Amino acid sequence: MEHGDSSIAILGIGTAVPAYRLEQAETSARLMEALKDNADSARWARRIFKQCGVETRYTCEPNLLEPASSCRYFPSLSIESIPSTAERMQTYKRESVPLGLEAARKALADAEVNVSEITHLLTVSCTGQFLPGMDTALVKQLGLSDTVNRIPLQFLGCAAGLKAVCLSKQIAAGQPGAKVLVVCVELCTLHIQPSAEREALFAASFFGDGASSCVIGAADREHKGIFQLGKEHSALLPDSANDMVWELGDYGFDLYLSPSIPKQIAGLIPAEARRLLEGEPDPQLWAIHPGGRGIVEALQDVFGLTDEQTEPSYSVLRHYGNVSSATILFVLDEMRKGLETRRSGAADGIAMAFGPGLTVEMIRIVYVPAVNRQEELLAGKRSV
After folding, report:
1. Which of 47, 123, 132, 216 has an alpha carbon within 20 to 30 A of 94's alpha carbon?
2. Which long-range contacts (CB under 8 A, 24 or more apart) does 333-342 make?
């Protein structure tokens, strides 16, 4: 694997979810009640909720757990009761910072990095905006330096989390001693639309809320299990600009996802992966952003991946849904836990995520198991 500066790694990961859990079966049943006067939409929604691969996910909005008759996000009430974009953004402003703080603190603790060591802060979100932004709130509440370099990545979609990782790797490789804190917060369920249209019901079936964070910098000789970061690749896929559309509306953000996206990705991603791999053997580890069950299935088929290789992606989709930009770090965290449980040795891999454009972000990774200097010293004595 071509690493560039092979010492640059994800040193720690943290994730967080809101307090309210949506059980897929219960949510589907309440939605069916809301659609009782629209039999065709109800049948279609019941099928997509069952088939999308999600069992549970989380929301910051307790109203989404209420009965259909009082849920303001379901298509059973008058238009006057639907939360406006302004109201949804107020909820985002209130809920996003605590969630980002929780994930960031976990990542710092996991990396064993002090806040005084953080030189750059990248904040990522596409589900809400306010100024002064989440970045300034995190600086103050985490106790970061007032001079930390703040880089917000806003409204870039699901691929933005991996874009932040790639950018952080470039920063850390170019500035000795730099340590970058990435914080992704997405409150996707705030944009559920009270509509019986298929596009709105599809989006309502698998998006969830959550935050993820990581610390990126040069790895010490003594570390926990880490992902070294190698060559990255970004591409804007041809003839796909209208396949994934995310626009501001009067009642939240309006999402359109073409049913052809899995087929598009399966047809176009192999060529992009070959450009990144440059003839090297296929990776052992595949951290695939689960933008939907169909995407993971399509890539598993086209690359001939095993169930074990795709399990981290399916597991995150099953338990958290698609958390937009935050999802890829959930996948890497899940992958690392599995590798640690199996006491895996070093393993070569690739991470990839997709977003509007259609855009693909990719990076080579290598899992390196925990290294303890005392263990190294003992191993050295035994070999003498």
Report:
1. 216
2. 333/13, 333/15, 333/212, 335/285, 335/287, 335/367, 336/13, 336/225, 336/227, 336/367, 338/311, 338/312, 339/225, 339/285, 339/367, 339/369, 340/225, 340/369, 340/370
